[in-house]
């Protein structure tokens, strides 16, 4: 694993594609809300902004028009790396999730396997078959977009190893360990899982760590101590502490800066 000497890159995942304002009324869903909180998160210390989009009714969107507005505005108002999702949401079709790559952001996420998500009491299949992964990777390479490989389990690290043999990726690789998601097939956010996942990373990869819910604070703190980069934000956790909702994403970024 590659490390940054004495520095930590903080990613802020602003919105996500799972929960909505029913989980936290301050979750930014509409473009101007996302932009406002993105700028504040950047000012608080986030170097990367991970961006999802929503429709006016709060449902998930891969609208090129919405993403273009978000991308252009955040790039104009900050010097953060604006990382657009290709995950979107488990309920969106794979082809629609390619839309963001065409905007040629600096980075896009690239999910590395299939999962069952449990969303609002329903089981939803998240399709990321091997041919889908290769198509996303090839499109990113052709358009000059750096992929961040989203790894939800130790099994997905095997898929990373396969992808590295295809010539579709260029080092240094960016890998995000996504822990404690509401899924069948994802790894829990435990110290043991974090240590083992980091141990199995390619030597020429930077490791980012994001862990959901109550595990965000302890796992991100441990990850920084191990030399990893970290992701925080309201996509992953809507509470600042037990019983207290986050007011905005910058709170979580500022706390991470203090710990770092």
Give the CATH class: Alpha Beta
The CATH fourth-level homologous superfamily: Aldolase class I
Strand content: 15-25%
Give the strand order of the largest sheet, numbering strands 1, 2, ... along the chain. 1-2-5-6-9-10-12-13
| Succession of helices and strands | EHEEEHEEEEHEHEEHEHEEEH
Query: Which regions are unreliable across 5 or more consecutive residues at pLDDT < 50?
Result: none
Task: Give a verbal description of the structure.
This protein is of the alpha/beta class. Helix content is 32%, strand content 24%. It contains 7 helices and 15 strands. The protein has helices spanning 31-44, 64-77, 130-143, 154-164, 191-199, 216-225, 249-259, and strands at 10-13, 48-51, 53-54, 60-61, 81-84, 107-111, 115-119, 122-126, 146-151, 173-179, 183-184, 205-211, 229-232, 239-241, 244-245. An 8-stranded parallel beta barrel has the order 1-2-5-6-9-10-12-13, surrounded by 7 helices. A 3-stranded antiparallel sheet has the order 8-7-11, with no helix packed on it. α6 links the parallel β12 (205-211) and β13. α1 packs parallel to α7 (249-259). The radius of gyration is 17 Å and the shape is globular. 47% of the residues are buried.
């Amino acid at each position: 694993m590659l490390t940054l000497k004495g520095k930590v890159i903080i990613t802020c995942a602003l919105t996500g594609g799972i929960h909505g304002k029913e989980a936290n009324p301050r979750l930014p869903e509409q473009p101007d809300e996302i932009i406002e909180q993105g700028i504040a998160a950047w000012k608080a210390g986030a170097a990367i902004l991970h961006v999802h989009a929503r429709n006016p009714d709060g449902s998930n969107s891969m609208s090129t028009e919405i993403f273009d507005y978000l991308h252009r505005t955040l790039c104009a108002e900050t010097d953060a790396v604006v990382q657009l999702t290709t995950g979107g949401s488990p309920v969106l079709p794979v082809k629609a999730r390619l839309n963001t790559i065409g905007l040629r952001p600096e980075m896009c996420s690239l999910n590395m396997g299939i999962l069952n998500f449990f969303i609002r009491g329903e089981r939803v299949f998240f399709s990321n078959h091997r041919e889908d992964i290769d198509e996303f990777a090839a499109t990113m390479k052709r358009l000059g977009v750096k992929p961040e490989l989203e790894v939800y389990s130790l099994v997905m690290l095997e898929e990373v190893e396969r992808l590295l043999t295809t010539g579709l990726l260029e080092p240094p690789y960016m890998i995000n360990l996504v822990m404690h998601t509401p899924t069948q097939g994802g790894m829990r956010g435990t110290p043991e899982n974090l240590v083992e996942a980091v141990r199995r990373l390619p030597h020429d990869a930077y490791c980012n760590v994001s862990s959901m819910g109550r595990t965000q604070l302890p796992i991100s703190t441990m990850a920084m101590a191990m030399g990893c980069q970290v992701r925080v934000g309201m996509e992953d956790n809507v509470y600042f502490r037990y019983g207290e909702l986050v007011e905005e994403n910058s709170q979580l970024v500022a706390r991470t800066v203090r710990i770092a």
